[in-house]
Amino acid sequence: MHDNALNRLQHRHDFVVSNKQGERRTKLILVLTVFTMLVEIGAGIVFGSLALLADGWHMATHIAAFMITLFAYRYSRLHTHDNTFAFSAGKVGVLGGFASSIALGVVALVMLVESVARLFTPHVIQYNEAIYVALFGLLINVVCAFLVKNHVHIPVDTDDTDHSESDFEHAFDAEHEEDHNLRAVYLHILADALTSILAIIALVAGKYYGLSGLDPIMGIIGALVISRWAYGLIKETSPILLDENISVRYKAAIQETIEADADNRISDLHIWRVSPGYFAVMMSVVTHHPKQPDYYKALLTQFNLHGSKNHLAHITVEVNLCSDEDCLASDLSAHNASTLIDAGQA
């Protein structure tokens, strides 16, 4: 009876960020990292090198983070149309990125504690072996970084329509969807590369210039930089997971757009991310002259940039007729004013 209307009015709930290329690259990086870890641990046992063993076991933390990433990709893919989730499994990738950022923070904390300890109790450093390990690790990290660098952002579908620049391009990520899950992998790789570079500098300075105290100092610097990266990713992912409202000025602009039409007033407005690049909107409109919900949704089309990209992807509008005494008195005043104008013109 109402099939056509129901099909037209039903919202889509598939907000999963699909990045198959990123998933494949992560699998390759995981294999390279496992191979590197086994080589370093094996060499450390054979040559009795603590540096090799320490770096090998350090790689295990990155392997754990990469496995979190792959799990999040697989879970999102398998539960894309799972009605268990109100807005699909679109936030699973964000959760994976958040978990990996916590792991990255733990790595930074361990580095910081170990470096501070070595400031007060210096260890004998096997410079040659340590330099070889750092160079080998850096080479692997450079290869891995190039594998994922261009896949952290997923380009959105665009059309040829000319869309003017606006402040909302930054709010709605008009150019790209951010794959926080893969970004966490990228930051783990950069963290390992930074550690290798700082270690090489410190080891060369210690071997040739006798600056053995530079090694723990470089470790502290590396830990602070990595902590900042981890904090940045936590700051990006946690608002999405906690359904944080969109920023005040963008929310105010949307409210002004609705209220600039007729005598509309918004009594309730909520805008939050349901996944990277997609927002849900719930608003309650009070007006003397109610219209269909589609009318109010059409007023928000300017916030959906790049034509084919529907950033305000799930809009729910409640329309309320203003029937209080003040509203009725206002209607009567408007009617009397209109009558007087018509009489004067006659």
Automatic annotation (TrEMBL):
Q: Where are the transmembrane segments?
A: 28-50, 56-73, 85-110, 130-148, 185-205, 217-234
Q: Which GO terms describe its molecular function?
A: zinc ion transmembrane transporter activity
Q: Sorted alphabetically, which InterPro entries does this protein's record hold?
A: Cation_efflux, Cation_efflux_TM, Cation_efflux_TMD_sf, Msc2-like
| Record carries keyword 4Fe-4S | no
Tell whether Nucleotidyltransferase is among the UniProt keywords.
no
The alphabetized list of GO BP terms reads: intracellular zinc ion homeostasis
Q: Where in the cell is it found?
A: Membrane
Membrane topology classification:
Multi-pass membrane protein
Q: Which UniProt keywords apply?
A: Ion transport, Membrane, Transmembrane, Transmembrane helix, Transport, Zinc, Zinc transport
A Pfam match is: Cation_efflux
According to the entry, every stretch annotated as the Cation efflux protein transmembrane domain falls at 28-242
What the entry lists under SUPFAM superfamilies is as follows: Cation efflux protein transmembrane domain-like
Name a single GO cellular component. membrane
PANTHER family for the chain: PTHR45755, ZINC TRANSPORTER 7
The name under which this protein is listed is: Cation efflux protein transmembrane domain-containing protein
